Amino acid sequence: MYLFADDNDSVLEALALMFPGLPKVRTLNLEDAVALTREHQPKIAIIDVRYPWGRSGVDALADLLAAAPECNVFFITAEVDAGDRRRAMEGGAAGYFTKDELHLLQEAIEALLDDEPDVLH
Asked: 119 near 108, Cβ under 8 Å?
């Protein structure tokens, strides 16, 4: 199960196209992402860093991991903030990519799946 959370629906569509045929849940709202993580226990979550309201994705990382400890959380962002990247990686994120680097995100997830094939089960 994959979880995608971004405030831009076109980004959610692009992510869905990158991972066809796999079960996924999508949301435009970060707080819903935490609730959906708790409910669905995704093995991979791709979360936007910046939202126009409320806290950031990085701020929600501890809640996401508490909701699904086995989840591999990857962050995507339009603009890199070194502090956010550091906090994300120190907080247990599996990766942090710009939205221009979605191909690198896809490669990182494919490498994870190659190393841990049970991650989807």
From this structure: no
